[in-house]
Predict the structure.
Amino acid sequence: MGRVSQDKGLDFLLEVYNKLLKRRGNLNLLIVGDGPYLQEMKQKAKDSKGIVFLGRKDYEELPNIYAAADLFVFPSATDTFGMAVLEAQSCGLLAVVSDTGGPKEIVKDYRTGLVAQANHLAEWKQRIEFLLEMIEHYPPRYVKMREMARENAVENYDWERALEELTESQHRKSTKKGYEDISFLYAT
């Protein structure tokens, strides 16, 4: 989901997907977005079954795509925030993210998704397998984690609340500064 570029860890994602596919033939990997690495990525993925490139989608279409997925896998170790992770979580989608970069701050490990060691193939495979097993054998736990993912995103990353807090903080600073300026003026 988002910009298709090499720095997003997409080669690693292909490697993880292909390892999982050997064990489970019923997986699909949806890649949504456009970018400088798209054609090369398609070329590298041409021999892998179950990979679908949806291309760039309008923002209004994204919730339906997130809702249709079972997991969101985001291996980037360079993202500073991870807006796509937040979008996925706000749609109630569990995410598996790298322990390097900003997305690890959004995901609550084993509550709203999983955090895996950056570029560690065995750990990523194990973490994704864990969630796939949960989907198949413990659906109530999976549904509960999805609910917690959405709750976490909505409660902790509400843009209006963040803007309000920032505005209030700036107001307190300017008010404090204003009083200092006024007292300084009175003191002279």
In short: The domain at 2-157 is CATH 3.40.50.2000 (Rossmann fold). The longest strand covers residues 29-34. The chain has two domains: 2-157, 158-188.
